Amino acid sequence: MRIHPLAVDVLLAAALTGVALLLGPEAARQGQNPLDATAYALVVLVHLPLVLRGRAPVVVCCLVHATWLVYITAGYWPVVCSFGPMLAVYTVASVLTLRVSVPCAALMGGVWIYAGAVNHTDSWASVAGQAVVYPAMLLRFGVLARRSAELARQLRREQAERARREVAEERGRIARELHDVVAHHMSVISVQTGLARFVFDTDRQTTRTALDTIEATGKEALEELRRMLKLLRAADDGAPVGPMPSLARLGEMTDRVRAGGVPVSLTVEGTERPLTPGVELCAYRVVQEALTNVLKHAPGASVRVRLRYEPHQVTVSVTDDGEGVIPARVRTGSGHGLLGMRERAKLYGGQIDIGPQDQGGFAVRLILPTSARAAQQGDDAAT
């Protein structure tokens, strides 16, 4: 619970005033003049300005010491009113530079010496020691508090800068999402366009189905592109942004690829449960990129998509039988899509295996942890 600074100052002033008033009866037992109504009024006046110490620390310090001088000159025990000046000196040292706080500390030491002279003390060594040690300690503690506050402000600035960098990095990751979206949807549209052209004069129904798939795929691509561009804009206009793709939409993706002429089967094992948005998006994009590669490099292959929910992880795999591979389109290196898969897996502490199968075909297998502990253990396990 955060308390307003003025309320804190009021409580401090009230507490110090209460302590001083309770200490007042001790004056007579210490051999000092007993406090009367005037003395108690001066005690209140010494501590009252502390309410505004946060707004005008130097003025409050001078006013408190001036009232304390009046109290001492009247012959009352100085210790009763010493708490207010101490807090005033500490406040100045905690918010202002040494050029200002040192004279305020010296002012307190001078008033303390003056109090010893007015009371005709016999222990000047003790008075002089207190006049030096107390202001010096308050000055030191105040300087430490000021430096701590400066470090805290610097830390907040660094955290804000780090947050801005993270936002920029996130926008960069969102920009890389464009590769997955465009590549997948354009591959589907390209396959469907070729199919429609091939059967245009002989099979009207197949042509119509292909055109419907092209229309739906184009609309979905535009929707995702529009959402990502909204996220990339520096200024937020408050427009609603749709949810990011999730594993619940894998069925829609496989239906779209199946409509493009590639036999795709989807198997879901285990108990379905909601996962964190980042994990779901990572798995979705890896499957999307794997199916896109099949459309581009092996349009005649049969594909199996397998999603398995386990207690602490989720596994997705995309395997094809290698039929209909177009050798000229197969890359031996690592394209942007494969690099994107590995980057996503590493980002969420997952493991990913990409490569040909012994029995033929190609396989992509991704394991993503669904708990913080598992994510830490697999943080560097991307392969």
The biggest sheet, with number of strands, parallel, antiparallel or mixed sense and barrel status, is: 5 strands, mixed
Low-confidence stretches: 234-241, 372-383
Number of strands: 5
Share in helix: 55-70%
Shape: rod-shaped
Please list the strands of the largest sheet in the order they lie side by side.
1-2-3-5-4
Strand residue percentage: 5-15%
What's the overall average pLDDT, rounded?
81
Q: Termini distance? A: 47 Å
Going by helix content, strand content and strand pairing, the class is: alpha+beta
Radius of gyration: 38 Å
Question: Strand-and-helix sequence, N→C?
Answer: HHHHHHHHHEHEEHEEH
How many helices? The count is 12
Structure, described:
By secondary structure, this protein is of the alpha+beta class. The protein is built from 12 helices and 5 strands. It has helices spanning 5-23, 26-29, 37-47, 57-73, 83-95, 98-118, 124-198, 204-232, 250-259, 277-297, 336-347, 372-377; strands spanning 264-269, 303-309, 313-320, 351-356, 362-369. Mean pLDDT is 81; it is low at 234-241 and 372-383.
What are the main properties of this structure?
383 residues; 9% strand; rod-shaped; alpha+beta
Record the SSE blueprint.
Layout: H1 5-23, H2 26-29, H3 37-47, H4 57-73, H5 83-95, H6 98-118, H7 124-198, H8 204-232, H9 250-259, E1 264-269, H10 277-297, E2 303-309, E3 313-320, H11 336-347, E4 351-356, E5 362-369, H12 372-377
Parallel strand pairs: 1-2
Antiparallel strand pairs: 2-3, 3-5, 4-5
Helix pairs in contact: 1-3, 3-4, 4-5, 4-6, 5-6, 5-7, 6-7, 7-8, 7-10, 9-10, 10-11
